[in-house]
Write a structure and sequence with these properties.
alpha/beta, 9-stranded mixed sheet, 5 helices
Length: 228
């Protein structure tokens, strides 16, 4: 059975949502406290949403120094699949595992609503089962979710196919409608929308399933993330 590790920082509040979502897809979810330093044995790692360390200083800025992030960096370097959702995306950006940064929303407004995202690239672990141009309805829930980067970084993202998702109607002022990006290898992905909250039409949308099914279906290389 696929084992997905869900990292828990002080202040995380979406870890149970993430665990429930991957469990619905047939995987085993296990919580990983932020002081852990060995991620071997996991087929994928999720950094969930919330307010890691209270979002003091800025979202993700303190969480990046947690011991688990060194392990996440090793795991990613070994080719292991890593997904950061909302606050998890912010943490990955602060840790340098994804390019760019997340800043406060346009108008300094907290957003909690459904939004439509468009699949731009299918070369990442999150979008490999989707279709380019496919539109997905997925909720957002953030205050600092506007993606930004310098021109050189943006040009590289476009050239390498690292922009994986864009908003159809930009809700937060994110540069060029960016909703999610990947690293060059495509095994580390961050997005601000919450696919784990779009798992059933009874709750409004099941469009998050195709993204998480893509992620859960990837197996990490043997030995990825082991302490050394």
């Amino acid at each position: 059975m696929t084992r997905i590790g869900v990292v828990v920082f002080p202040g995380s509040n979406c870890e149970y949502d993430a665990a429930s979502a991957v469990t619905q897809l047939g995987a085993e979810a296990q919580f990983i406290w932020h002081s852990e330093s060995d991620l071997s044995g996991f087929d994928g790692i999720i950094l969930p949403g919330g307010f890691a360390h209270g979002d003091y200083l800025r979202p993700g800025a303190l969480a990046r120094f947690s011991p688990v992030m060194e392990a996440v960096a090793r795991y990613a370097a070994d080719g292991g699949p890593v997904l950061g959702i909302c606050n998890g995306f912010q943490v990955l950006a602060e840790a340098g595992l994804l390019p760019g940064a997340l800043q406060k929303n346009r108008g300094l407004t907290f957003l909690s609503e459904s939004t439509t995202i468009i699949v731009v690239s299918t070369t990442s672990v999150l979008t490999r089962n989707a279709t380019k141009g496919q539109e997905l309805v997925v909720p957002i829930n953030h205050f600092s979710g506007a993606y930004t980067c310098d021109d050189a970084t943006y040009d590289a993202l476009v050239a390498n196919g690292q922009i994986v998702l864009r908003y159809k109607d930009n809700p937060n002022g994110s540069r060029d409608d960016v909703a999610g990006v990947a690293n060059e290898a495509g095994n580390v992905v961050g997005l601000m929308p919450h696919p784990e909250r779009a798992m059933s039409t009874l709750l409004g949308s099941a469009d998050g399933r195709i993204l998480l099914e893509s992620f859960v279906g990837v197996k990490a290389p043997t030995g990825a993330g082991s302490s050394r």
